[in-house]
């Protein structure tokens, strides 16, 4: 009897808490995230300001709520773009194979050879910053990893007996790809998605941190970290809370991914 | 004549010397007939069936000759044209019941699959009724309960029956059975053979039965073709081939079987 681990439970609780936290930020923040209050400058965490205030007197709790929302939204959009395109490319390449497959995969290799944040920086330097440019740049750069993952799965399944017998019942290729093979790839795909999500959160945060992510007027976790780095020792709460949100979000999703993978019995 | 195979050859070109897997194979089958192809591993029996079903990728292999199925040459049809026959007029069941079913699809859905492809007009309820009917025909007990189950919940024999149900749901005129009982234990094997026989009697489905097991072929088929190294060694009515084999190879094959006769006191095997 295999011991059931707590990864899934802990991960699910943690993720649910972080999502609830983020969702809260969409509807309500105690103060305006951009409101400046001279009286509260450098205020440490207290009842009025749970996470304290930064050097301009902005409420860190409100900014973290808002920032988590935009970081999460961007990460999800990046993931959706990367995963959907990667799935299509990987499924077709893996299923049909041939010269087109070799060409596309080499292209993916070429893209994947560069660190994705670095390439996204180049793209953003050309297109200018902004939420949609970030999503587009990161999303495209996430395609190769998904494509390769999905392709590997399809390669493994395309000559299985049940696929062959479906083909011999006269089932068409598209139906074989989506109805017969795709559901079998779910366990692998799911862990790929959780890793991709984490990378997307980190990539968005790093890009904002480098100052070329979302526009500076929108609070973002990466941007807050960048703002606060000068006062890391004098105002540690300005760094600690946004960083904690990023860490807990990633930890939660990673644990869910690990837990699901474990329960579905996929070898790592 | 339902199936008329003439001079079917399958040659692997590859590098170096071309390898002939099937050499001028000819066979005629009438409706409702059960014909067996026997031979050792590598004798080309499965390759023959695969060529008929269009399972051989033409880029690596040359397939020549003709195989007329009700007048249409299966070897010359395009992939799309062939698809119209597959599952509807001719079906195949494979050796491995454990891997021939999709682990993520419910049994019912898998049995219905060829209905979805070939009879698009059916409502879900009609499809379900036809699937349950085919499952009953294949000898599956309690089809309603099985309909919603997944393959891992079934034993090997049951899965092979599911495969048979899926192959028969559209009542094809030809069923190619590629070693369908080899992976099963002997008692289940006998039951499956009985089911196939029964289906043949009731529905008039012709069966091209491929096996290395002479006893199984004898129990089921009316005619038999013995193959060796891609060539037909001998063919004829099953009793004639078994009791009066003309060729040395056939005699060897027959004598190589474990002698169940002696153990059972003269009772015929199978």
Protein architecture, described:
The complex is a heterodimer of chains A (268) and B (270). Chain A has 268 residues and is mostly helical. Chain A is elongated. Chain A contains 10 helices and no strands. In chain A, helix 2 packs across helix 8, helix 8 packs parallel to helix 9 and helix 8 packs antiparallel against helix 10. Chain B has 270 residues and is an alpha/beta fold. Chain B has a domain of 75 residues. In chain B, strands 6-7-8-3-9-10 form a 6-stranded mixed sheet, sandwiched between helices. In chain B, strands 2-1-4-5 form a 4-stranded antiparallel sheet, with helices on one face. The longest helix of chain B has 18 residues. Chain B is globular, with a radius of gyration of 19 Å.
Feature tags:
heterodimer; A: 268 residues; mainly alpha; MetI-like fold; 10 helices; 71% helix; B: 270 residues; alpha/beta; six-stranded mixed β-sheet; four-stranded antiparallel β-sheet; 10 strands; disordered C terminus
């Amino acid at each position: 009897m295999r011991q059931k681990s707590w990864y899934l439970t802990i991960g699910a609780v943690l993720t649910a808490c972080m999502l609830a936290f983020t969702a809260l930020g969409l509807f309500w923040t105690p103060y305006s995230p951009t409101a400046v209050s001279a009286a509260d400058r450098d205020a440490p965490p207290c009842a009025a300001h749970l996470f304290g205030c930064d050097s301009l007197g902005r409420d860190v709790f409100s900014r973290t709520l808002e920032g988590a929302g935009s970081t999460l939204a961007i990460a999800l959009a990046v993931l959706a773009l990367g995963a959907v395109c990667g799935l299509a490319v990987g499924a077709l390449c893996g299923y049909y194979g041939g010269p087109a497959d070799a060409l596309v995969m080499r292209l993916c290799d070429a893209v994947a050879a560069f660190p994705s944040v670095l390439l996204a920086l180049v793209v953003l330097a050309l297109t200018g910053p902004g939420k949609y440019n970030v999503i587009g740049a990161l999303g495209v750069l996430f395609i190769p990893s998904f494509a390769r993952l999905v392709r590997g799965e399809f390669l493994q399944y395309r000559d299985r007996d049940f696929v062959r017998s479906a083909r011999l019942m006269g089932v068409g290729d598209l139906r074989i790809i989506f109805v017969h093979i795709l559901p079998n790839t779910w366990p692998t795909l799911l862990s790929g998605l959780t890793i991709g999500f984490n990378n997307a959160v980190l990539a968005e945060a790093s890009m904002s941190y480098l100052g070329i992510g979302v526009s500076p007027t929108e609070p973002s976790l990466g941007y807050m970290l960048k703002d606060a780095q000068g006062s890391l020792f004098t105002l540690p709460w300005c760094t600690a809370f946004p960083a904690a949100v990023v860490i807990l979000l990633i930890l939660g999703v990673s644990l869910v991914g690990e837990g699901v993978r474990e329960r579905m019995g996929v070898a790592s | 004549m339902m199936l008329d195979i003439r001079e079917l050859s399958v040659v692997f070109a590859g590098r170096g010397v071309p390898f002939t897997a099937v050499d001028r194979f000819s066979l005629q089958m009438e409706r409702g007939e059960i014909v067996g192809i026997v031979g050792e591993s590598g004798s080309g029996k499965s390759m023959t069936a695969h060529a008929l079903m269009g399972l051989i990728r033409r880029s690596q292999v040359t397939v020549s000759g003709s195989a007329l199925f009700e007048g249409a040459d299966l070897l010359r049809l395009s992939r799309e044209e062939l698809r119209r026959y597959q599952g509807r007029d001719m079906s195949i069941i494979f050796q491995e019941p454990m891997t021939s079913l999709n682990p993520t699809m419910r049994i019912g859905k898998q049995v219905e699959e060829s209905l979805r492809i070939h009879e698009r007009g059916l409502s879900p309820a009609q499809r379900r009724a036809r699937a349950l009917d085919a499952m009953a025909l294949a000898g599956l007990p309690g089809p309603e309960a099985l309909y919603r189950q997944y393959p891992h919940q079934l034993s090997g024999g049951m899965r092979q029956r599911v495969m048979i149900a899926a192959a028969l749901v559209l009542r094809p005129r030809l069923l190619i059975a590629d070693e369908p009982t080899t992976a099963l234990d002997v008692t289940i094997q006998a039951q499956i053979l009985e089911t196939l026989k029964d289906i043949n009697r009731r529905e008039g489905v012709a069966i091209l039965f491929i096996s290395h097991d002479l006893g199984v072929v004898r129990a089921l088929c009316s005619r038999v073709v013995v193959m060796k190294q891609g060539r037909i060694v001998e063919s004829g009515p099953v009793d004639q081939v078994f009791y009066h084999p003309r060729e040395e190879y056939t005699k060897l094959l027959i004598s190589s079987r474990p002698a169940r006769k002696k153990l059972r006191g003269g009772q015929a095997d199978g």
